[in-house]
Amino acid sequence: xxxxxxxxxxxxxxxxxxxxxxxxxxxxxxxxxxxxxxxxxxxxxxxxxxxxxxxxxxxxxxxxxxxxxxxxxxxxxxxxxxxxxxxxxxxxxxxxxxxxxxxxxxxxxxxxxxxxxxxxxxxxxxxxxxxxxxxxxxxxxxxxxxxxxxxxxxxxxxxxxxxxxxxxxxxxxxxxxxxxxxxxxxxxxxxxxxxxxxxxxxxxxxxxxxxxxxxxxxxxxxxxxxxxxxxxxxxxxxxxxxxxxxxxxxxxxxxxxxx
Length: 259
Hints:
259 residues, Purple Acid Phosphatase, chain A, domain 2, 3-stranded antiparallel beta sheet
């Protein structure tokens, strides 16, 4: 089992203890693994908001960490293990999105350009608590599909040099979504498609969820909440703005406007 850190594992007084409960060969929360013809890359996407956000109390310093991880990733994609693999899968908590929150844009800026050179079969993410398939070039410059698994769901993935298919099941064991994609192109072809958005989008012409109604109900974090640059400077107003997209139950814990 491989465990990947999400943004909430970086919060709270026991956040540093996460490292003590996981077997990390290099002592870092990002890693790789090889299994037969499969090469797996696990990225640490840190937080979803800017370091200056009040959520972190001045304890976050993301840029040096992300740069160091990007340098590590450059070496990973050039390694024999990655280059010779028939299937290359990436796992990250926050998905890339050029118009998303800070964390989404960090993945787009620091990791996607490097991954685009590696002939990635697919990237698997969470974070949004919604089922979504991002076609190549749709929300980011990624030339590979990005699969976002909803919360409280089990995903079964079948991957081979011939293609990729997956099924999603709810807590009762009922299948809710399915998706498939043909065999991945070579890293050399992948690099050329990075500059051809139309061709990249045509690559996965089967990217359609089985449950189209569920796909239509997806609301991105960008739509549900204001962008960080639009948040008011005042702390109380910032918290109220962040609460605008939450459910009535969650909003009970949000600060109320002064009367």
